[in-house]
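Chapter summary example.
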Amino acid sequence: MAKEDKNRFLVQYGEAVGTIAAQSLGEPGTQMILRTFHYAGVESTMSTSGLPRIVELVDAKKKPTTPITYIYLDKDIAKSFEKADEMIRKISEVTMSSVVRRVDENFAKGKIRLILSSQEIEAARITPKSVASKISKDFGFETKVDGRIIEIKIGTRDPKKVRSERVRIMNSVISGIDGAGKVTLRQDDKTKEFYLVAAGSDIESLIDIQGVDSTRIITNDVFAIYRLFGVEAARNSIVSELAKTLDEQRIGVSRRHLSLIADAMTARGNIKGVGRHGLSGEKGSVLARAAYEETIKHLVHAAVYGEIDHMNGVTENVLIGKQVPVGTGTVKLAIRKEDLSRTAKKK
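The structure predicted for these 347 residues follows.
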């Protein structure tokens, strides 16, 4: 890194880095509102972008609104369209409800009849026999295939039981990876490699599939990364996703501010949001917690349990009118009494 580049990251002693980082993300965030729903981009049609995505990340939502995973293939098959297309069939999640055109329940005989859509099963590259065998394997029911019609013998005439089994069967995955979602094929313009884009984030299952390059699998689900790779990888993902969202909106924010936010969110070994249930609600200062939300609750709790506020932060000092401990406020001037008296004599 060049010397001038290093100087850009130098911080003066006492600088209010937290406040500046919050302002650096918060201020441009207000400018995203008009752009968010009008940004014309290929990926924006598949994943949440703009301010809603920023809110998702800083609030540490367990699941993104629109999860997406980029799956790169092994070098030996990455440039073969046929093999990449075969990987789609292997990975793409197909649910029973997506291929069934009609469902009939016969409570008197304890049977369910599924009428499959010929168009959907052809698109999913499955057959009625494979669907029937999947039902038998997963649920243990006896099945009978007649063309596109599958008859399932539940083994009970209890209407409640028949209905509950129908719901289970219709929600089941009959092909592909559960949690992978629909998969589409893309090609890199530079390398000419084919890669897959999945509308899901179950990287725990995807990473073990033969043909998938486990070193090049990327998802926008921060918690999926945390579960599989740990908190450091999740921290890097938060920075990357924040930066990507801001870049899409043509907004330039220094990575050091994003890194500080990600560090604060993951400093305790897990992922915490910045709201009242996360960082703001866990501050050591009573007044700082009370200044954010649920003021009365925090003050009453502090009074009941005898909490002490040591006034080490910015918010609590602003509230009572004291000098904040940042900038020049970090410096304390001390003088001995004898020196003070000697100075007074000279005057």
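To summarize the output: Residues 36-45 have pLDDT under 50 and may be disordered.
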